Amino acid sequence: MKQTASILSVYAADTSGACSALYELGGMSVIHDASGCNSTYTTHDEPRWYHQDSMVFLTGLTEADAILGNDEKLVGDLVQTAMELRPRFIALCGSPVPMMVGTDYDALAIEVRLKTGIPCFGIHSDGMHSYLHGASQAFLHVCEEFCETSVPRNQNTCNILGLTPLDFSTNGSVQKLRNILERNGFRVIAPLGMDCTLEEVSQMGSASVNLVVSHAGLATAQWFQERFGIPWVAGVPVGTEFSRQVLMSMQSSAQTGKCAVPCAETRHDAAQDAPLVVGEAIFAGSLAAALETETGAPVRILCPLEHDASLLRKTDSTTEDEDEIAALFTTATGVVADPLYRPVCPATVPFHPLPHEAYSGRCYRHLIPDLIGTPIAPLLAAKENVECFVLTK
Predict the structure, then answer these.
(1) What's the per-residue H, E or C state across 113-181?
(2) Is pLDDT above 90 for 326?
(3) In what order do the strands lie in the sheet with 209-212?
(4) How far is 339 from 238, CA to CA, in rounded Å?
(5) Beta-carbon neighbour count of residue 383 at 10 Å?
(6) Cβ atoms of residues 277 and 239 within 8 Å
């Protein structure tokens, strides 16, 4: 029962991450699950659902199908729908029940591709991992499928990797991120995941550097490095001074071909009682770095999600256990986290709410700030201004 959470919420699942990553690219995302189960994704994890069309479907998995197997019907439905809608690609995403019965998504994808002539790939999501796991697979599949290999390298160009509304809600931050890069001499080829097309994806191999803004884009960045020799920089240009550090790292990497991780490399190891930022490793690390540069005091991060060791300092924490998180909060001099973490934060520890779409969904969507290129220090000085659910005895 150690992994059971009685108070805290959970992050959006890998299935949501995959669908979110592919939402705008003109493909057909198919969740292999029981009828009605896509409502969790469409109503809580996808802010674009009500104003931007996308082909997201469910297979309508029944109990009999799961127990006895009925792949022929599944393939038939996929082929019929694809021939009617003619999507640019088909992504078959998993869920817990197909995982338990050992559904072979890769084999199903090959069969559908052969019968339709449409690119099709399986995403090994199972509802047991976070959105980063699913989005990472989806981004990598799309780039492997559609990136042209013979494009010439262009100087002063970049891709943005790891963009989904689960980390960067529809609050203008993506456009602002693009504007900052372009004002500083980088032409953005593809902001993969948001405001992006497959035509732009096909040209991503011509970039001189990749900017990785969440762990969901790291595997794709490493693939571009191996396949095209494109270096990557991990960091989100939040704050003013740290934004300059990210841009300087990008310029250096583009010239030297060496990768950089300013979200970790520019921070110092922090004592246990330092302020604590909770969230996805690259964004939380960037926020902590921005706070350090503006306040002069070290800041730790707590990453309860999938991560890479290179993205963290040795004094950072990585746990998703509710009791361990509560214990870490007791020693911090302040906590910056989604409001749904507030119930496990002691009343004596200053709590600074920063809503995260992947954690609290639409609950605090209207309060998610745009931190790209803006001062961060006021975040720690701000009073708590959102309501949250507090359990009482």
Answers:
(1) HHHHCCCEEEECCCCCCEHHHHHHHHHHHHHHHHCCCCCCCCCCEEEEECCCCCCCCCCCHHHHHHHHH
(2) yes
(3) 187-191, 157-161, 209-212, 232-234
(4) 20
(5) 7
(6) no
pLDDT in tens, 285-296: 999 999 999 888
Residue 91 forms beta bridges with which residues? 29, 121
182 and 130 both lie in a single domain:
no
> How far from 67 is each of 64, 125, 219, CA to CA, in Å?
5, 20, 34
Residues 248 and 304 in one domain: no
Closest CA to 302 of 344, 260, 261, 254: 344
Per-residue pLDDT of 333-362, as tens digits, reads 999 999 999 999 999 999 999 999 999 999
Out of 20-29, 135-144, 358-367, which region has the weakest mean confidence (pLDDT)? 358-367
Q: Which of 213, 240, 264 is the last residue of a domain?
A: 264
**SS3 (DSSP) at 210:** strand
Is 387 a member of any domain? no
Q: Are residues 242 and 280 in the same domain?
A: no
Phi, psi for 225 (deg, rounded to 5) = -65, -45
Domain that holds residue 101: 14-145
Same domain, 178 and 110: no
Interatomic CA distance for residues 317 and 155, integer angstroms:
38
Q: Which residues pair with 301 in a beta bridge?
A: 277
CATH number of the domain within which 228 lies: 3.40.50.1980
47-71 pLDDT tens trace: 999 899 999 999 888 888 777 777 8
Residue 122 has pLDDT above 70, yes or no: yes
In a domain, 190, yes or no: yes
**Same domain assignment for residues 236 and 320:** no
Cα–Cα distance measured from residue 290 to residue 227, given in angstroms and rounded to the nearest whole number: 32
DSSP3 helix / strand / coil % (the chain, rounded to 5): 45, 15, 45
